[in-house]
Amino acid sequence: MLSLLKAVSFFLGHIPPGLARVLGGMLGLLAYRLLKRHRQTAFENLERAFGSSLSFSERERIAKKFFRNLGVMFFEFNRIPWLKKGSIETLVEFKGLERIDKALEKGRGILLITAHYGNWELLHSALGYKGYGLDLVVRKNDSPVVEDFIRWVRTSSGTSIVYKYKAMLPLVRRLNSNAAVMILIDQNTIARDGVFVDFFGVPACANKGPALLAQKTGAVVLPVFIARDGAKHIVEVWEALELVSTGDKDSDTEVNTAMFNKVVEKAIQMRPDHWFWVHRRWKTRPEV
């Protein structure tokens, strides 16, 4: 089965980029029309985040652009394993890579925080093809066949996979060896694994693991995002975040987690159509 999926990926990954964008846009709009529940979730999230500042037509425009992005991502994901290291800059423009280089010189490891934003799969792959070996923290897919395929694509650029379950100790070891670890921090988590932070003015349960990792290891925390710009993508590494360190572990974890999520909120404010609005980000609610 994996061989068959690789063969399909070869075909999809070699469709000319311009045609792939057209087909992907059409696929995304079809999904927008057919996936009623996901479309409704996107509208509810947009209303929760932006309230009356967005009209219905504006929410509809953002939701459609998001779905189109997903459709194009489908083709771009299959293109990843067939990219050549030397050709990545024909597809991606990089900004702020010197911040990664500077952080590596400190020898404490790097925690790259990002979100399901733009083509997030291309983000870690582009950095991998650029020569930055990353450890990507992900959840294992429920289907072993699908997981094997996704893992094959993700590791094709040199990215290593770390599964979330019981990942803390391995990640501490990796950061202590001056590795670069990438975590997508924007999804809902259950109350015992997270802390409630302000996200677009609404309490959201956020994973506290990244803050705990940074506090324990002293790793440099760098936000990084990928944005679509016509036929190309822009990968931008933002300035390092200054962690709060008062000696109160729980308080520091909450404050730093809130800071990390404010960075994600800032990125979404800049390009609302880039974020994964179909995720139930505010699913876990505070006890009353």
Q: Any overview of this molecule?
A:
The chain contains ten helices and nine strands. The protein is α/β, with parallel strands linked by helices and 288 residues long. A seven-stranded mixed β-sheet has the order 1-9-8-2-5-3-4, sandwiched between helices. A two-stranded antiparallel ribbon has the order 6-7. The radius of gyration is 19 Å and the shape is globular.
How do the strands and helices of this protein lay out in sequence?
Blueprint: H1 2-13, H2 17-34, H3 36-50, H4 56-79, E1 92-95, H5 97-105, E2 110-114, H6 120-129, E3 134-138, H7 144-155, E4 160-163, H8 168-176, E5 180-184, E6 194-199, E7 202-207, H9 209-217, E8 220-229, E9 232-237, H10 249-270
Parallel strand pairs: 1-9, 2-5, 2-8, 3-4, 3-5
Antiparallel strand pairs: 6-7, 8-9
Question: Can you describe this structure in just a few lines?
Answer:
The protein is of the alpha/beta class and 288 residues long. The protein has ten helices and nine strands. The protein is globular and about 55 Å long.
Order of helices and strands: HHHHEHEHEHEHEEEHEEH
- Label the overall shape: globular
Class per helix and strand makeup: alpha/beta
Q: Helical content, roughly?
A: 40-55%
List segments where confidence is low: pLDDT < 50 over at least 5 consecutive residues: none
Within the largest sheet, what's the order of strands? 1-9-8-2-5-3-4
Count of helix runs: 10
Which key terms come to mind for this protein?
two-stranded antiparallel ribbon; seven-stranded mixed β-sheet
